[in-house]
Specification:
With about 250 residues, the chain is an alpha/beta fold. The chain has one domain: P-loop containing nucleotide triphosphate hydrolases (Rossmann fold, 3-Layer(aba) Sandwich), CATH 3.40.50. Helix content is about 35%, strand content about 25%.
Length: about 250
């Protein structure tokens, strides 16, 4: 299937590029030749229904899966076959779906686990940066992760990913399972992180929220990009409005 393309800003400084990526789970062909670019300083969002391939795309970028065909490039270097732990040091920060924090460790200990590739001095500085973004985490720094609310756990998952000082931050369903007021808070923080200069690739089922903060978007359907363009154009696109924004 050929993706319909809407007008989008020219990408002059591409940090991340997926070229004709095909990813499999065993015999299951999960991604079918997707092409995605993310330019420095952008928020780019991937939207689509369950099973569309959004999480698989992030897992492929972060090295948890490797494409069978095609390539993933970070700052022009092919990282398609690089292991996940090495990609952390190369600048990939990933806050996965479901948060996956260490429930028996404190907030502070969780953050230090995120910064395992950094020096003690760098971690001290970065913990303070995370606490500035998430004052609630600072207030409860000695509280164990498993006792936090869903919203607090999501803050911690994002904060832990930021501890690596990534070049690009991958966020997988940050609003999943959160009350509406917490969704607004999380998206406000994502905008603040981006405003500080962080490039973000956001996977989100809440398409309206995602498009409201993103520069550009890609619509995935059964492992293929079927539509791409500037967020403002996608929000008024009839197909997107009917399928993902809940409008008739």
């Amino acid at each position: 299937m050929t993706a319909e393309t809407l007008p989008a800003p020219a990408a002059t400084d591409v940090i991340l590029r997926l070229n004709d990526v095909h990813t499999y789970y065993g015999a299951i062909h999960a991604l079918r030749g997707i092409n995605v670019d993310v330019t420095r300083g952008e928020i780019v969002t991937l939207i689509g229904a369950n099973g569309a391939g959004k999480t698989t795309t992030l897992r492929t970028i972060s090295g948890l899966l490797h494409p069978r065909v095609g390539s993933v490039e970070l700052n022009g270097a092919d990282i398609s076959k690089v292991d996940a732990h090495e990609l952390v040091t190369r600048g990939i920060g990933h806050a996965p779906e479901g948060r996956r924090i260490f429930s028996r460790l404190t907030i502070y200990e969780n953050l230090l686990m995120g910064g395992f590739t950094r020096s003690k001095g760098e971690n001290t500085e970065q913990v303070e940066h995370v606490y500035e973004l998430f004052p609630r985490l600072k207030e409860r720094h000695a509280q164990k992760g498993g006792t936090l609310s869903g919203g607090e756990q999501q803050m911690l998952a994002i904060g832990r990913a930021l501890m690596t000082r990534p070049t690009i931050l991958l966020l997988d369903e940050p609003s999943l399972g959160l009350a509406p007021i917490l969704v607004q808070q999380i998206f406000k923080i994502i905008r603040e992180i981006n405003a500080s200069g962080m490039t973000i690739l956001l996977v989100e089922q809440n398409a309206l929220q995602a498009l409201s903060i993103a520069n550009r978007g890609y619509v995935l359907q059964t492992g293929e990009v079927v539509l791409t363009g500037a967020s403002g154009d996608l929000m008024v696109n009839e197909t997107v409005r009917k399928a993902y924004l809940g409008e008739d």
